[in-house]
Amino acid sequence: LLLSALGAPALGDPGPLEDVVIDRYYIPKICLREAQMGDFIRYHYNGTFKDGKKFDSSYDRGATVAGVVGVGRLITGMDRGLQGMCVNERRHLIVPPHLGYGSIGVAGLIPPDATLYFDVVMLDIWNKNDKLQITTLSKPERCNRTVENSDFVRYHYNGTLLDGTPFDSSYSKGSTYDTYVGTGWLIKGMDQGLLGMCAGEKRSIIIPPFLAYGEKGYGTVIPPQASLVFSVLLVDFHNPKDGVFLEHLEVPESCKRRAVTGDFVRYHYNGTLMDGTLFDSSYSRNQTYNTYIGKGYIIPGMDQGLQGVCVGEHRRVVIPPHLAYGENGAGDKIPGSAVLVFDVHVIDFHNPADPVEIETVSRPEGCNVTTRNRDFVRYHYNCSLLDGTRLFSSHDYKKPQEVTLGANKVIEGLNSGLLDMCAGERRVLIVPPHLGHGESGARGVPGSAVLRFEVELISMEEGVPEGYLFIWHGDPPANLYEQMDLNKDGGIPAEEFSTFIKTQVVEGKGRLMPSSDPEKVIADMFRNQDRNQDGKITPDELKLKSDEDQEKIHEEL
């Protein structure tokens, strides 16, 4: 490097130059490639004489110079001075006359025997033998599938020239670039560069001009014969032939039944795009999503993806856009043509035709008497959801639950599950919501929830027919009023009535409706007979229920 030839003070005249003088006054820290003989290059320059007078400039023309270096298409001095340059390198070149335009010069522009001074910046280097340069910047740990020809991709990108000049960016537009791969909708280099990518992968793709926009360039932003650099983030991709992809994350060991079309399913979910962006979650609302499957109430992909689930299963459902929200997307959170990923936890499901499911855990030997409707029973129970969430327990109150079966005092499914039980028997009952608390639920019970009961029958008392508070074991006394009027004063007060009924029960002649409060039952009986509510029953007021029923039938006839 003969720096004195660039105009620095020197002792004496060094004489005419024998070769081009090169001053590499800016060398980039990273130089991936140097211009070699036969390479195609693109550069800017200013050309001056020794006195600084400009004779030519690519900047003034508003266009870079493009050509092949080292094959005689440039003046010899420039051919030599450009070799070995890196992209973005800057050089001062001094070209002696015999390596420039010699003793002839260029008429009206460059005089004979002129030494030429060039200030050059290298912008692009490529070769016809170049291939696509792909560098993987980051890649997800999980990659079940990679891009193939005919896939539809959604990706973000920053596009620059080789010297770093930006020409386009999807980020600035606020949306991904969406297109098919391998169908000619992209430049060849991008078609090739996207192949094999995973969703979420980042790549740097360097595309030579003959795989990009070639000799024509593109508008004012991409010059002719420009190499392009794309920094690409693949957001998602799918194929129009794709179906739903299922990943069984956790399946319970015990799965007695799987959901089918027509079942009503309650499930929690997180919904994300393929890059992990959350667009919806049932957990954030603290409420399950409840729907029928296979009936078109939800997007087709989810209708398919929930088929065959078990209660308690965790499943990942990946849905291509043509089975989700299509090209239009949904709202401002699901872009058009987006692949959706649902992580689903199935809480429970049932069918509207389901009966109560009864499993006998234990049953005493020699059980001859079982419960029927109208019987009064005492039982312990634990109630939970199918996912194990505990709801209620009689053990919390330290005493059994008491109820008359068939009196609409408990949900229908529990009533059914308590029938035909022996004292001491234990059962597990699965009660669907239409036999439980229905779509609305109850305090502490979610709507449309399937309930699980663990029940143990402690004791039972034989009941009486509906509408009766007391029944005779045989025929009632012919002179009932006289027997009931203990002091024979022509009126029966509450005390006499109560004493008489209790005596009939003790002597086994009749029985009261089972209850935890017999006194209340007797008081209700007296109130029913004391028609005028004067505190005593007269002969005209006392009537058996069977006689009252007959009178009602007669009146209706």
UniProtKB/TrEMBL annotation:
Q: Where is the EF-hand domain?
A: 479-507, 517-552
* Enzyme Commission number(s): 5.2.1.8
Which GO MF term does the entry hold, naming one?
peptidyl-prolyl cis-trans isomerase activity
Top-rank taxon of the source lineage equals Eukaryota
Catalyzed reactions: [protein]-peptidylproline (omega=180) = [protein]-peptidylproline (omega=0)
Q: Where in the cell is it found?
A: Endoplasmic reticulum
Question: Which keywords does UniProt give here?
Answer: Calcium, Endoplasmic reticulum, Glycoprotein, Isomerase, Metal-binding, Repeat, Rotamase, Signal
Signal sequence interval, chain numbering:
none
What does the entry list under GO cellular component? endoplasmic reticulum
Q: What is its main location?
A: endoplasmic reticulum
Checking PROSITE patterns in the record gives: EF_HAND_1 (PS00018), EF_HAND_2 (PS50222), FKBP_PPIASE (PS50059)
Q: Which residues form the PPIase FKBP-type domain?
A: 38-126, 150-238, 262-350, 374-461
Q: List every stretch annotated Disordered.
A: 526-557
What Pfam families has UniProt attached to this entry? EF-hand_5, FKBP_C
Note the PANTHER family from the entry.
PEPTIDYL-PROLYL CIS-TRANS ISOMERASE FKBP10, PEPTIDYLPROLYL ISOMERASE
Its annotated function is as follows:
PPIases accelerate the folding of proteins during protein synthesis.
Q: What is this protein called?
A: peptidylprolyl isomerase
* Source organism per UniProt: Vidua macroura
Lineage, highest ranks first: Eukaryota, Metazoa, Chordata, Craniata, Vertebrata
Name of the gene encoding the protein in the UniProt record: Fkbp10
